[in-house]
Amino acid sequence: MASFEVTVLGASGGPDVGATQCFLIRPFGWRGLESVCIDGGAGSTQIAKMLAGETRNGLTESFYERDYEPVNRFFDSNAPVRQGLSDSTLHALNNSPRITSYRVAQVYESIKGYYVTHPHLDHIAAMVIDSPLIFNSQIPMNKTIWGLPFTTDALKRFIFNDSVWPNLIHSGGQRLKTEALADQVTTTNSTFTNFEVTPFRVSHGLAAHHPREKISSTVYLFRDKITDHCIIICGDLEPDSDEPLLSKLWSYMASNIPLHKIKAIIIECSSPMTIKELYGHMSPARLAKELSHLQRTYGYKQRPDMNVIITHVKNYCSPKDPRLVILDEVRQESQKLGLQGIRFSIAIKGYTFYL
Ligand SMILES: [Zn+2]
Ligand SMILES: [Zn+2]
What is the CATH number of the domain that holds 145? Predict the structure, then answer.
């Protein structure tokens, strides 16, 4: 049985304005409309499109070999995924007016907060542009932006500063607030009290202008206290170089969570193997190597039974959809390393995974 509903509002690594990384998460079968988001690259516009049923049946946008591809090409044949918002969300909307804008407002109001991985625009844009809706509503609502201090500080200094965007954090009577988390310190989500959330700082390459300055990002580990199931959701990241960061995450997992309890790893793989300059991101070979590292940390007596859902693929000029290229390459690289028990899929906007 599933423990998590993960709706993909956006999963592009850009440029795809309004559809970059954002996952809406709730406990499986939750009766209300409440949710939390990981990142905020997509938001109310995507919710509206899903509620209006814009997505073509069985097809998804591609704009490469064909403009629309059969969506099942992007999923493992056993991936627990269905089109649209989760069944329980739609059920909770049953008695609402049949006007999409009302329903969008209700789903948006019920987003209790955002766990932001890092403050790059493709991870925050829609969260910021949607934020005035918090104050337009008749219904009092509060949202919290959680993140490691490098994220919450940057949002306060460089985004909500009355120059780039109105300072809704200080002027808003606490309706929108930031809350800094500590690296590797577990907190319980205040809405979903069975969800424990642990952030891990990871590396995201070097600054473009100051190549000695390191850029950080975050991986969030969500654990359901009742079922002990976990999902790992990554922001942008690269393998460890001089600091053990990802290896600390794998060791933490191996010490605290049985391998078969990891339901899914949602992880970026920005570019296929032909792209050599990765700018702090993963490639299919790097991703397979990390999964092999995880298996090695657990030892070979435990076998995984998990979904690896690839997100943040960058669009570029090419004859073939880079997501399909990456999916093939990741499967091949994993086979070379002898990995077993992993189902690979691509995160496709407008679809919900039941994990
Ligand atoms: Zn980034
Ligand atoms: Zn990004």
Answer: 3.60.15.10
